[in-house]
Amino acid sequence: MALWGNTDAEASIPKYLNAADNAKCYFIDITEASVEANQDKGLGTSGWNLYETYTAADGSVRHKAETLVAMAVTAADAGDLGTTGDTADEDLVVAD
What we know:
Blueprint: H1 19-22, E1 25-28, H2 30-33, H3 36-40, E2 47-55, E3 61-70, H4 75-78, H5 88-91
């Protein structure tokens, strides 16, 4: 069994993450990785990424992104249904 899957599904999240990190893990397909709003957040690599925001001491909002598993997967292959609502939680963070 693989340690991660290549679909935009909760069951595909990398198995080595703890529960807290599972909530911050997002699958980015190659189309989403090219969206400027995602690149501005540091989400410019397709595959599995950890992402969170925090407020710095000066009050500015910062983005922290870490690529866990880089993959070149299209939206169709990833099962990312985008604006249909099936991935609504992810769509709040990752722009389609």
